[in-house]
């Protein structure tokens, strides 16, 4: 998990933003906010989680699957980069 420790501050910051968004969803429900506002906030939570998941999976692939992520020359490294690209598109 060394790839996580390198970006730990950034990851924790993202988690705190997502937590704040989830708390806003809860407050919206408690306060009887309009459905649209609650759903919009919930959608932002989903986007935040997807972004976090993508970032962590990308780090995992680069750290544990690729042999040379900085200069990918092998077919395995190139395929791993293709996988990262596809996953980023999927999670948007």
Describe the structure.
The protein is mainly alpha-helical and 92 residues long. It has a single domain, classed as Metal-sensitive repressor, helix protomer (Methane Monooxygenase Hydroxylase, Chain G, domain 1, Up-down Bundle), CATH 1.20.58.1000. 80% of the residues lie in helices and 0% in strands. The chain contains 4 helices and no strands. α2 (8-30) runs antiparallel to α3 (35-64) and α3 (35-64) packs antiparallel against α4 (75-90). The chain is elongated, with a radius of gyration of 17 Å. 1% of the residues are buried. The mean pLDDT is 91.
SSE diagram, text form:
Elements: H1 2-6, H2 8-30, H3 35-64, H4 75-90
Helix pairs in contact: 2-3, 3-4
Task: Give the gist of this structure.
By secondary structure, this protein is mainly α. It contains 4 helices and no strands.
């Amino acid at each position: 998990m060394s790839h996580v420790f390198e970006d730990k501050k950034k990851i924790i910051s993202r988690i705190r933003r997502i937590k704040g968004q989830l708390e806003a969803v809860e407050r919206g429900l408690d306060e009887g906010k309009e459905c649209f506002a609650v759903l919009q906030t919930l959608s932002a939570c989903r986007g935040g989680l997807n972004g976090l998941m993508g970032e962590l999976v990308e780090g995992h692939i680069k750290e544990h699957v690729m042999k040379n992520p900085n200069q990918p020359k092998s077919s395995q490294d190139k395929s791993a980069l293709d996988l990262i690209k596809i996953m980023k598109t999927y999670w948007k």
